[in-house]
Amino acid sequence: MRHPIDINGYDYSTSREPSDFSENVLTRDVAFNRHSKNQEGTHVSPFDQGHIDVGTDDIKVRLVQGINERDFARVLKKAQMATIGLDIEAADDDDEGWEEMLKGGLQTALESQTIVFEVQGVSRTATHQIVRSRRAAFHQQSQRASWMGVHPNVRMPESVWRNHHVRDAWYRAINACHEAYSAACAQDISYQDARFILPEGTSTYIMCEYTVREFLAVYAYRACSMFQWEICHTVREMGRLLVEAHPWLAPYVKITCEKTHVCEFQGWEKVEGQCTLPYAIEENRRYKPHKSLQIK
Asked: Please, where in the chain does CATH 3.30.1360.170 lie?
């Protein structure tokens, strides 16, 4: 049932009567982390400088764990030879030919090595997309366990930055969110409940674990400009760092269109003007929408 209320001259409605303060046992605010339990300040975000990053400015990506190349080559070579069988008592010969598995076919041995990246400064909006890779593991800064601070860092889209009217409204909205968050925490509402107030643009930290096989698939898909600019930039930076550490991977860390020479963009927008790759031509698209948005 909806109950109309007025908030600063705007009409909203609530699911309960404003005078209804009944409590549900399941939704009681009993979470462990709140100001009264965080007196030593051990659960405090390091990103509380009131800083606003625009677009992809200052997104930091680091390769934490790369590939043990010798072991990887040995596993790939043996996986390829397993079809005819191998004498495991015989001394290992050279690993020549190990790279064949990277070119296609049954690639399960590419899952024998895990690579790990850490990313700092992306928004919660971006991480909501990053974690949708199902064959990967993630470790993210918790807004449930940590005090995010008085003015948590946030990320602003360039479209907002270039529009003075919207930018000013955005500043006011962010400040209002931070004030409400601080007020909630000051009243000892748990961090897990207070975090509902924080904007999705709040900066965060995340560590991402992929098998080699999964990362190549993620890069081929997510590095395409059809996706939101923040995740596209982050994944491309991951790929750059991986190739920098392991140059022999360069032929395989590719966006799908770089392999097929066909534009794989699936959105309604026109591809010209938002992608620098030579395959980004409307006539070269595999999936042509029924209607296109005329983006100039």
From this structure: 44-85+109-253
Tell me which amino acid residue 132 is: R
CATH of region 44-85+109-253:
3.30.1360.170
255 half-sphere exposure, CB direction, 13 A CA radius: 25
CA distance 8 to 166: 20
Tens digit of pLDDT for each residue in 47-73?
Answer: 999 999 999 999 999 999 999 999 999
Hey, is 218 helix, strand or coil? helix
pLDDT of 146-178, one tens digit each?
999 999 999 999 999 999 999 999 999 999 999
pTM for the full model? 0.90
- Alpha carbon distance 152, 155 (integer Å): 10
- The Cβ-side half-sphere exposure at 282, using a 13 Å CA radius, reads 12
Q: Which of 75, 95, 61, 53 is nearest to 202 (CA)?
A: 53
pLDDT in tens, 249-279: 999 999 999 999 999 988 888 888 888 899 9
Residue type, position 214, single letter: E
